[in-house]
Amino acid sequence: MKTNPLRTAAAIGAALAVLAPAAGCASQSSGSSGGGGDAAKIAFLMPDLASTRYELYDAPLFKAKMKELCGGCSVLYQNADSDAAKQQQQATSALAQGVSVIVIDPVDSAAAASIVRMAQSRDVEVIAYDRPIPKAKSDYYVSFDNEKIGAMIGKSLVDHLKAEDAEGGILQVNGSPTDAAAGLIKKGVHGSVDGGGFELLAEYDTPGWQPSKAQEWVSGQISKFRGKIAGVVAANDGTAGGTIAAFKAAGEDVPPVTGNDAELAAAQRIIKGDQYNTISKPIKTVAEAAAVAAHQFVRGETPKGNTTLFDTPSELFTPTVVTRENIKEVLFGPGGPLKAAEACTAEYKAECAELGIQ
């Protein structure tokens, strides 16, 4: 997806011209246009509505942690709804409102480089969230290890197929071609699937992570490889849902299908036996880590991270593979991200009882 060419330097300059001096506060972030400390503004720019996580979890959790850390700070939350040009507008608007830090999960990792450069030209720090921005060095990156996610779901599937003495090949449904995190997941999947003993029949980069696009492509592959698909590596729960819908629409048995994000719908599919696995990467972990890093920046401090990725100080966390065998413990146990009452509706009640989820 390309950035709208109308986002010219002149337009950006005009928008930024309305910047007003920030209110006084206990401590100032060095050079930040919006100030810091107890009166800082932090932009939280998320990429899409196709995944339910941003509205239900990321934004509320980030806001709650920021409020805990800095009672007078305010969070400007915007969702770009899969539109890179819209996200550019939102970043420009946030800068015009005097933010000290931008936390951004980019729609288009390449296009977001211009947002990083624009913010940094104003001495505003940028935290890349969940998805990296390889073409511009942001000030910090917070995420789960996406390459490891791909490796883990791929290995989980291959090991399961071997244990079941499955025959046939594998389809690989990747994420968005404009998402650098999707590229890392894809690399991790190939590391586990290539040479794993099952032929890779075909693979697809899903535009915008859209489940409908994944479903459409998988439908075509079912016709092409009927009876030969042993399993499907889907890069997230949305594309997994589209994949499963394609098999059901074709009247075919659903083979083991992977996922990622531990969304409620995916948990229900795993409980039902329709989806083989997902990845639990508690959003609270990354949302709160991003809030802590943002607070450090507005206080004039520099978060250190635990590694470096794309020449950016990074804080990467290790996720957990979830199947029917451990779903009760990981997703519904004490401190787990999901509640039994949410998942175990009438349609799933019997399977929940079978797994002891209550």
From TrEMBL:
Q: Secretion signal: which residues?
A: 1-22
Q: What's the domain of life for this entry? A: Bacteria
- Outline the extent of the Periplasmic binding protein domain: 42-301
- Keywords assigned by UniProt? Signal
Compartments, record wording: Cell envelope
Q: Report the InterPro entries cross-referenced here.
A: Bact_Solute-Bind_Prot2 (IPR050555), Peripla_BP_I (IPR028082), SBP_2_dom (IPR025997)
What is this protein's record name?
Substrate-binding domain-containing protein
Q: What species was this sequence derived from? A: Actinomadura sediminis
